[in-house]
Amino acid sequence: DPQRLNYEIMADHPDYAHEYQQIQISAPVEVKAPDIVLKKGYSVSGTVTDESGKPIPFATVEYPGFHGKVKTDLQGRYQLKNIPDSVMPTKIKAYALGFAPALKEITADRQDNVADFVLGKGYTLSGKVTDVEGKPLKDVFVSLYVHNWHLPLIPNTRTDETGRFTLNNVPAGEIQLHASKDGYNTAYLQHAVMGDAQNLSLVLTSKSAFQIKIKVVDAQTNQAIPAFEWALTESPESRRRTVFQPRYESRQSADGTLEYFANEAGKVYDVFVRAKGYAPGVVRGVHAVQKNELKTVFVKLQRPIIVEGRMVADATGTPVFNARVQAFNEDHPITVSNDEEFNRPGYATAFTDLNSRFSIGATSPESDYLYITHPEAGVAVVAIAQIGNAPIRLTKSASVHGRTLQDGKPVSQAHVYLEDIPLGVQQETKYPLRHEMHIRTSEDGRFTFEHLLPGKYTVSWNNRSRKVELSAGETATIIYGEPGGIDVFGTVRDENGKPIEGITVVISQQGSAETDAQGKYIIHDVPPGKYPVFAFSMKRPIKLPFKDAFKGEIEAPEGKERFKFDIVIELKNVR
Fold first, then answer.
1. Which CATH architecture has domain 398-480?
2. In the chain, what are the domain boundaries?
3. Residue-wise pLDDT tens digits, 23-73
4. 393 with 370: CB under 8 angstroms?
5. What is the CA 367 to chain-centroid distance, rounded?
6. Omega of the bond prior to 422 within 30 degrees of 0, cis?
């Protein structure tokens, strides 16, 4: 299907970690798929025992993002193997009947990882869910989470006819309860578990529901359009913050209508509609004020305006075949990303033919743009209103190459990010297009971002940011951790001189580290210069949110390999 541009090819083998490769179909031609190299994956192994050291057989070990669970054997041993590095977890969970579940943090800096679990006695939490008038609510969905864990820690439950709920085998520590029910806003409750609790209370506030009736018609004939796609989104605070793509749903209706119920009153919504043979339409500012209010929204779709043109390479003036042309505007912006989840393609796509010509349907010549890319000829952004008889000239694209090093050694499979500054190119050129890309480094720590528009960018790795300004055809090089950097180290203490564990120390745009049990930290490869310094923590028992963080400044001197910077945090001011 040449209309669908991106695909994934997966290779799987029982003795190797599975691997994906992305492939782009840009035209109805034969495309060579990329070669796939399978590697030995990561493994996590260990034991699950009770507090007396006795093995727990048939316990379950799992983690988010992986499609399998394993059971322990009769000796309480388990092994997860051939885990792709792309899904290697940072937290892993073990649980068994009659015990409280336990979490372990994993540091994926080696192929074989060990995580032993000790499951202890759990506690029982019970309570009641009511509405704002104190009336018990039946069938409320109650779940329990811990910080940074994206799955419920224990099985979910529902309230009974009296609004009561019970959760068993809850481990000690800081947890958060979620209570949700159709027609109500979700309620949250923070609780420190130190024993059984019987009188927890959650109050749900009712959603003020209203109904939207959408009617889609042809703008010229006022005839109903029976087949269309639609999306409803909350209006952004600013028109310039439209760097998103609505998630459309298909609809078949003989009279071109759709009724949508149970949104919150008091908010402002935007309605997006598109249909085959029409330019996309949007109605902004649908505002329902009263409960159970019915809003009827007419969406009139125009036939697209056909825009034709021709393009050539700027340097040589030669025709350009198979260049990709994307139409976009403020309602349907573009985000350039190598991650399908974040990629926003505008509202229409076409390709140049053998004569270097293209034809694309646009919504408005006055407010729409074309984003044109070709892997060899370059890139261009042009306002449709400026397209004339002269060919569009593509400018050589820019690129960023670099490498990640730690202690002089390459760091492979590291995540490197690239974004526009500030808020993308739109801030300077007034069109809604931005770059937001991430990539993993190769085995020798190298990375490359290609096909970039001229402009300003931020490139980040491991809390270290570098700013670059690229002109047409320019290639910038960034080396993280190159020789000549300074190791900044020190100790974080409270006002009484006691070391504090678990504090995150950040040197702005250069790196971060967490203090150990002696309150010590070290941040490598800081270039000489002045930088803001922050120290904060979101962990117990010391919870120091960023708004209350230590703030200071460091001046890393020239000619030194190490520089000491101690920090004192007055915990008496921290709640």
1. Sandwich (2.60)
2. 42-119, 123-204, 209-301, 305-387, 398-480, 486-573
3. 666 555 666 777 888 887 778 899 999 999 999 999 999 876 555 688 999
4. no
5. 30
6. yes
Q: Which amino acid is at 355?
A: N
Please say if the pLDDT value at position 491 is more than 50: yes
Which of the pair, 431 or 139, is modelled with greater confidence?
A: 139
Topology annotation, domain 42-119:
Immunoglobulin-like (2.60.40)
**What are the distances in angstroms from CA 126 to CA 74, 161, 163, 181, 194?**
34, 14, 11, 18, 14
In words, the CATH class of domain 209-301 is: mainly beta
CB 564 within 8 A of CB 491: no
Non-local CB neighbours of 240 within 8 Å, separated by 6+ positions: 330, 423, 426, 432
- Is the sign of the CA dihedral 38, 40, 42, 47 positive or negative? positive
Rounded distance between C-alpha atoms, residue 472 and residue 450, angstroms: 12
Question: CA-CA distance, 398 to 452, in Å (whole number)?
Answer: 5
The tokens of 14 are what? 């029982």
AA letter at 491: T
Class of residue 515 by CB neighbours under 10 A (exposed 0-12, middle 13-18, buried 19+) = buried
Longest dimension (CA), the chain: 83
User: What tokens appear for 59 in the block?
Assistant: 């316990």
Q: Is the pLDDT of residue 358 over 90?
A: yes
Entry pTM: 0.52
Q: Peptide bond before 557: cis, by omega within 30 degrees of 0?
A: no
Query: Taking a C-beta distance cutoff of 8 angstroms, is the pair 102, 94 a contact?
Result: yes
Question: Is the pLDDT score of 243 beyond 80?
Answer: no
Question: Positive or negative, the Cα torsion across 347, 433, 441, 82?
Answer: negative
- Given this model, what pLDDT does residue 485 score? 75
> What does the alpha-carbon distance between residue 314 and residue 320 come to, in Å, rounded to a whole number?
10
Task: Find the length of the chain.
Answer: 575
Q: Going by C-beta distance under 8 Å and a sequence separation of 6 or more, which residues neighbour residue 440?
A: 86, 413, 414, 415, 416, 447
Give me the residue label for tokens 């085959």: 276
Q: What CATH code is assigned to 486-573?
A: 2.60.40.1120
> Which CATH code fits 305-387?
2.60.40
d(CA 19, CA 12): 7
**Measured distance CA(496)–CA(156) in Å, rounded:** 44
530 has a pLDDT exceeding 80: yes
CATH number of 123-204: 2.60.40.1120
Q: What are the CA-CA distances from residue 418 to residues 40, 338, 375, 378, 506 (Å)?
A: 29, 11, 19, 19, 20
Helix H or strand E encompassing 24: strand 16-24
Give the ranges where 60-194 is alpha helix by DSSP (H).
Answer: none
Question: Which is nearest to 500 in space by CA: 463, 537, 534?
Answer: 537
Output 236 or 360, whichever has higher pLDDT. Answer: 360
Integer-rounded Cα radius of gyration of the chain: 28
Measured distance CA(26)–CA(87) in Å, rounded: 29
Residues 6+ apart with CB under 8 A from 88: 42, 106, 108
